[in-house]
């Protein structure tokens, strides 16, 4: 953003929130005095509510303010408290929570008995995290690559040692297939 030639004529202010204290109001007061209304915020998902609450407390949540959160899990945060304030609150979302496959996976996870004795079950908020979605996609891609490769040639699996650096005979084929998909 700072190197974009089209933005050279615009004023860009960079501030870092005090990490140790978790106090965001001071920074918002400073931005308010400067008249800053378009704000990109990079905080962990767990801090988003506190950030918005502090912004609200210093009159930085209005029709004139736009917030963009860089957290890929902003879609898991309940923003209902800020729904009618007029503030534009945005972020990226890599998980399509309305897709048929996603809804089936969530239903299956909720209806399946725990496979581990100490597992308490995860909330939908935890299951919808981007990290979980990426791992799920990676495992499905790997499984599909193995399945499809096994259809064209018989894959034999023999014990593999973690101590040696001998590559798996089908490793390149699986990797190449995964790159194509």
UniProtKB/TrEMBL annotation:
List, alphabetically, the GO terms of the cellular component aspect.
membrane
> Domain of life here?
Eukaryota
Presence of keyword Iron: no
Keywords from UniProt, A to Z, are: Membrane, Transmembrane, Transmembrane helix
Record keywords: Acyltransferase included? Answer: no
Supply the Pfam families for this chain.
Answer: ANF_receptor
Q: Where in the cell is it found?
A: Membrane
Q: What is this protein called?
A: Receptor ligand binding region domain-containing protein
């Amino acid at each position: 953003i700072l190197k974009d030639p089209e933005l050279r004529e615009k004023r860009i202010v960079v501030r870092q929130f005090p990490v140790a204290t978790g106090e965001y109001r001071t920074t918002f007061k400073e931005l308010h005095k400067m008249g800053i209304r378009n704000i990109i915020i990079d905080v962990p998902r767990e801090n988003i509510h506190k950030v918005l609450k502090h912004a609200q407390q210093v009159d930085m949540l209005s029709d004139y303010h736009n917030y963009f959160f860089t957290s890929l899990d902003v879609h898991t945060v309940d923003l209902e408290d800020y729904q009618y304030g007029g503030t534009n609150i945005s972020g990226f979302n890599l998980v399509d929570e309305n897709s048929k496959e996603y809804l089936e996976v969530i239903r299956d996870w909720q209806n399946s008995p725990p496979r581990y004795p100490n597992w308490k079950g995860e909330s939908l908020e935890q299951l919808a995290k981007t990290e979980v979605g990426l791992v799920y996609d990676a495992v499905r891609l790997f499984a599909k690559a193995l399945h499809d490769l096994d259809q064209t040639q018989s894959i034999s699996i023999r014990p593999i040692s973690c101590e040696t650096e001998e590559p798996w005979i089908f490793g390149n084929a699986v990797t190449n297939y995964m790159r194509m998909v």
